[in-house]
Design brief:
The complex is a heterodimer of chains A (about 140) and B (about 425). Chain A is of the alpha+beta class and about 140 residues long. Chain A has four helices and six strands. The chains are: A alpha+beta (about 140), B mainly alpha (about 425).
């Protein structure tokens, strides 16, 4: 199964990246962890995200769309990075996540969310739809 | 309250077992190198798990669980050696000797712990894939000791009985012991040969899943993912080998189509028929990255692309085409020409004929197919008449096409493929 692992933001991560000795050490620790994931055949993809100050939100209300500039409040509700893993089950994902180095000096959080698989979406795509071969990137399933 | 406690306990056990699963292959690798015996290494690893299940619920999972398990396993190994000596000799005689031996053994463990653990795992993979074993035995043993699958899981994946697989694994372990393999990673030419044997085993496992040769299921995705995992693992351990990345690229791209290959009625869909929106773009991107890496590594070491990289390049041509009509068939035909030069085989010749038919017309395909019609390896090989049927169909020679599809259907052992070929034979009648 495939899971997305969210590294939640902290007040630290929201300040941005500066190559302090601590930051470099944390970077190296995360690198070593990623290396372990790669060697175990678990790692699929990952990326770090810039602070929310550089982000935008698009708010929808009926037909209206409003663009909101970052930074956004509630650092703990924000995402600082993500990683995609291929694991056998949720237990294995948890076991890996436990050994992830603490991404920040204080309290921080990682969240693991399993992907929808094609079989979960049966109610959304009819067998007839699946039976009709078609070209092009329809992307309807949204299953990465 | 009691239910809660039981729940917590079972959660803890699951957490410990999941941690153990992550460490298992490395653990067995390290222990096997120490005791030079896979069976014994598996037992010691199991002992370490039992110790962890007793200890960790109280102490918590240690910061470095892998090192904890390895130390525990190695201590057990030394204890067993000591006990063996105790039985053999009188206590008085060995009292002093034992202390010395124990010191030596402790030093040996410390030295071993400093070894590169990745190197040990590679040594285990190379041993499980050793050419002294038959390809089937290599695949079963690799899935067991490196992939951590149970014999039952392996039996189901290979449509075999558990007893057969268990016996195959036992025999493989005996062969390894008899050959006196050391679980080391060889160097130079020997390393290249062993690596290519490992690649062969991983691709054999992948193909067993991807193109099932018998039975009702055409593809077995869990086994394909296991092979992919082994390939990713190997690439992580040998980051400088072009063909490892070639194979990885090939598997990533082929795996990207796993979901799309099966129609709702379970029938196999050809590349042209597949809904390309269902191709896994994440795997395609990983495949293209791995291919780029394979090509860069080959260029760096001044060798031409190997057979896996070339097959991956062909798979990449399909992956890049958003519509079947966009497929760059002349490039695929050219890649098959190159593949034929480095890895000649009747099957490659057949695929080359198909590629040429798509690039230059059905007549070109027929001409190349005629050249291989007498190849012994293709006698009774369903894809040959299936391809000829397709060329003839496209050339408008429907009666001949129908006969070829019928012949192909009679040759295949796969029920769903047979249904597919028969439907193509029927289509020849409809077209009239």
């Amino acid at each position: 199964m495939r899971v997305m692992v969210f590294i939640k933001a902290t007040e630290e991560s929201e300040k941005g990246l500066a190559p302090t000795p601590e930051a470099l050490e944390a970077f190296a620790a995360m690198d070593a962890f990623t290396e372990d994931l790669v060697k175990a055949g678990v790692f699929v993809a990952a990326a770090g995200l810039k602070p929310s100050a550089e982000g935008k939100r698009i708010a929808f209300e009926g037909a209206r769309r409003t663009v909101i500039d970052g930074p956004f409040a509630e650092a703990r509700e924000l995402i600082a990075g993500f990683s995609i893993w291929e694991v056998k089950d949720m237990d294995e994902a948890i076991a890996w996540a436990r050994r992830c180095p603490n991404p920040s000096p204080g309290r921080s959080e990682i969240e693991i969310r399993p992907f929808f698989e094609a079989s979960d979406l049966e109610g959304f795509v009819t067998p007839e739809e699946l039976a009709t071969p078609r070209d092009g990137m329809r992307g309807k399933l949204g299953v990465a | 309250m009691i239910a809660d406690k039981a729940q917590t306990q079972s959660n803890t056990h699951r957490a410990i077992e999941a941690t153990f699963r992550i460490e298992r292959a490395r653990l067995i690798a390290g222990l096997a190198r120490m005791v030079r015996n896979i069976d014994r290494a598996e037992e010691l690893a199991q002992d370490a798990l039992v110790a962890a299940l007793a200890e960790w619920p109280r102490s918590g999972i240690p910061e470095n669980p892998g090192a904890w398990l390895m130390t525990t396993g190695k201590r057990r190994a030394i204890d067993a050696i000591r006990q063996g000596r105790m039985r053999e000799r009188k206590h008085a005689e060995i009292a002093q000797e034992l202390d010395e031996a124990s010191d030596d053994a402790t030093r040996a463990i410390e030295a071993a712990m400093d070894d590169d653990l990745g190197d040990e795992l590679l040594g285990l993979i190379f041993t499980a894939c050793h050419p002294v074993l038959s390809p089937d035995a290599r695949a079963a043993l690799t899935l067991r000791v490196v992939g951590g699958l149970t014999t039952d899981e392996i039996a189901r994946a290979f449509l075999s009985s558990e007893a057969t697989i268990a016996q195959r694994i036992v025999r493989a372990k005996k062969t390894i012991a008899k050959a006196g393999l050391t679980f080391e990673v060889p160097r130079g030419l020997e390393r290249a040969a062993r690596l290519s044997s490992a690649l062969e085993v991983i691709y054999l496992i992948f193909n067993e899943a991807y193109a099932a040769t018998a039975g009702d299921d055409l593809v077995r995705p869990p086994l394909a993912m296991e092979a992919l995992r082994l390939g990713r693992m190997l690439a992580g351990l040998t980051p400088e080998d072009a063909e490892v990345f070639g194979l990885l690229a090939l598997m990533e791209i082929q795996a990207s189509r796993l979901q799309a290959r099966i129609g709702p009625d379970g029938a196999l869909l050809t590349l042209t028929e597949q809904d390309r929106a269902r191709w896994d773009q994440l795997l395609i991107r990983r495949g293209l990255d791995a291919l780029a890496r394979a090509e860069a590594l080959a260029e760096k070491s001044g060798v031409s692309d190997g057979p896996y990289a070339l097959q991956a390049a062909i798979a990449a041509c399909h992956a890049r085409a958003r519509k079947a009509a966009d497929t760059d068939w002349p490039r695929i035909a050219a890649l098959y020409d190159r593949l034929r030069a480095v890895a000649p085989s009747p099957v490659v010749d057949l695929n080359r004929a198909i590629a040429h038919s798509m690039a230059f017309g059905p007549e070109a395909g027929l001409q190349l197919a005629d050249e291989i019609a007498d190849a012994a390896a293709l006698r009774n090989y369903a894809p040959l008449p299936a391809a000829r049927g397709d060329f003839l169909f496209r050339a408008g020679r429907l009666a001949e096409a129908r006969a070829e599809f019928k012949a192909a259907a009679a040759l295949t052992r796969n029920m769903r493929e047979r249904a597919f070929l028969l439907s193509r034979a029927d289509a020849c009648d409809c077209e009239r």
